[in-house]
Amino acid sequence: MASHLPLHERHVAAGAKFANVSDWELPVAYGNPAEEYALVRRGVGLLDRGDFGLLELTGRDRGAFLHALVSNEVKALGPGQGCATTLLDVHGKVQVVLFVWVVDDRILVVTPPAMAQKIAEALDQYLFSEKVAIRDVSGETALFVLAGPKAPETSERLTGARPPESQWSHAAGKLGDTPVRLVSGGRETGEAEVWIAGPASEAPRMWDALVGAGTRPVGLVAFDALRIEAGTP
Q: What is the homologous superfamily of the domain 53-138 according to CATH?
């Protein structure tokens, strides 16, 4: 049976039509996909990334440990920085694309849908004497994306903060009374993107604040059209 997004009922109320994607029941459109496409091209649209996973790495060796297993520079990243990278197997073959966010006392790793536990187990196999703890915090975190040329200014207007322009760099802010992390995305759609991460317990309030401020949701039909046009795999 397909999993529902934690905010499934909010999407139903917004008029979403759903489809099964990788064992998730995801919104594919909220009405007219062409209008949703135009929102992202000309203004800003909202995507719920509640199907994505999130791992937390703590311990003094976390940077060096992760660096040895992925394709991009990780151990030199400081708090507020991040990168997109790929997890490699023992033969150097790409297994999966990950997004890495470095904060003061931990590293957060965003995983594709339904893969957080599998990736955590794969990483754990390489732990020997390193001082690293790996925890799946997917259920503790809400993830949203503002996409479009007005995404940075919209995030700043709503949270009082704007992330650095370099991809996957991030900054702290507040959406209402909710502490959030604002992350410059990888331009999957070809437009500016700001990921917003906050406590899962506050997800309904976060969604309501974003929609209440005039940000409209975008389904997968429009998102995939934008992604393909941008040449994003």
A: Aminomethyltransferase beta-barrel domains (3.30.70.1400)
